[in-house]
Every structure is written in C-alpha cells, then in structure tokens.
Amino acid sequence: MDEYRLACADGSYAYVHDRGYVIRDKANKPVRMIGAMLDITSRKHTEAKLSEAKRVAEEAGRAKGEFLANMSHEIRTPMNGILGMADLLLETALTAEQRDLETARFSAEELLTIINDILDFSKIEAGKLAMDPTPFQLRKMIQRTIKPHAIAAGKKGLSLLCTIQPGLPEGIVADPTRLAQIITNLLGNAIKFAANGEVELRAALDSLSGDTARLHFSIRDTGIGIPASKLRSIFEAFSQEDASTSRNFGGTGLGLTISSKLAQMLGGTLWVESEVGKGSCFHFTFEGRLATSEEEIVPPIQFPSKTHLRPRNRPGCEFFLPGTTW
User: Fold this and answer.
1) Angle CA(287)–CA(231)–CA(147) in degrees, nearest 5?
2) pTM exceeds 0.70
3) In the chain, what percentage of residues exceed pLDDT 70?
4) First to last CA, the chain
C-alpha cells in the first residue's frame, strides 16, 4: 500500500491510494495480481488546509506569548519606579490626607502582581521559563517566604503556622525562587479565602533515592472551601471557583495555573483536597538533589525565641507572629 501524486492532463494533480496483492496457486506460484486505486485528492486538500490552519494558529500563539512577555516587561519596569518613589515619599513627613498615598502604593503592588503573573504565564506557554538549580538552605527559604504573609494573616486575625517534619534536608539543590513562588501563591490564596481560624504550611521529606530527595509541602486553611465539581477547573488559566470570586477577592486566576506548571517543572505535581465550608489543603511535591558539603549553602537558621511560639500540644509547629523582628 502506498500513496502517489499523479499529474493530470489539465495540469492539476491527483492523489491516489494504491493497494495490491498477488494471487498464488497451490504451488505458491503467482497467477494473477489484484489491485485498486482510491482517489484521495479531497482528503489531501483537507489535510493541507488543516496543516496550514494549525501553523497559523501556532504562529499566532507564539506572537501572543512574545507580545505579552515584552509588554509585561515594559510595563513592569516603570511600575517598579512608581513603587520606589512611593516608598521614598511615605518615609517623609506627610499629613493624614497625604497618607492616602499608601492606597496608591497598594494598588501599584496589586498591578505589579498581575503583570508578573502574566509575564510568567506567557513565558511558560512559550517554553521560555527555565529552572535555575541552586544550592540553598531549605528552612531559611521557608522562613523568608512565610514571613511577609504573617502581617496579612495578623490583620485578618488568622494564626499562621509552619510545621517542619523531622528529616527535612537542610541543604538542597533546586530553584529556590520558583519554589518560593509556589509557596507564596498558595499561602496568599489561603489567607485571602480564610475569614477566621488558621493557615498552616507543612514541609516534609516524602522519599529519598540516592542523593535525590522528593519533598512534600502542603498549605491548609480554614476558608470557604471549593466544591468538588470545581477542583479540576481551578487549575485552568484565568479560571476561579466562580465569577463572584474575582469580584470579592480579586486576582487573575493565573496563580494556581502557574504554580501547577512550576511544580511540574520542578519534577513534582500539585493537587488539592477541599470541602465547602471547612477549608482546603493544597499539596505539591518537587525533587531536588541533596547539597554536598563542598557546595556553598546558607547555614542553618537560628529562630529567636521571641519570634515564634512552640505549642506544647503541637510539636514541631511554629506560630509566626506579625510585627516581630527576625
């Protein structure tokens, strides 16, 4: 069986599908040949149109990704300048009315968050986001990442907890920036959707194979929860639980999509368990190589006693308090 292109008398081309086989006698000698030719010109034209449409769509997708990446970068640069100037002004003596500048700064931060989400999403879609494995001290990264969220949690009257399970490696080689980004996205969502109660980050060693460690992080909240029918769709781009979520809580609907993609790029996965009215628990895993003694890593962190509490009934759990000095 084969396909051919044949030249027609009018100068056009026809495509045929040729199939044939040999009829043999009892002595296995060929006695005749049977074959058929099927005109597949219409099918070939359709395939060519589909192929061209696919090419055009892919080029449009690449162009969109490059446009978003370029524009996001161009917008982010002046936004950083606006934030810097706002910080400088807020450090000067201002009247109560002039203190409204804090609202402008907050709005600029929110806009910068959206711009960063769009930039990361467009890079991921274009395949231009690369991991940067670096040896780092895991506990210190967790502490630095969770600390800014303590103030936001405190303003809502939430307890922010961090539980480090025994056996967690001290030094690991992975991308600390992208790992912190996942934690930040999940912690931010947990605090956003929890009206009372607590938010807890747990970190544990899932498995160890040679010098490769698989780690398991989870972020649990006592928030509004997610209906079972929405547990898959929340990981889709620009998707939230429902339309009112964006109105009431804000956000682009890109955070979970980006976090899920980053977890995959780190060799892991992201999933959620949730019950409406009781809260949610987002889990993610990632892989990293154990740092060797020759690799330069940040030394183990020393927690000053005034910055956290260790409840007797919850060993290994630390309450991070807003307004403390690390």
Assistant:
1) 55
2) no
3) 83
4) 75
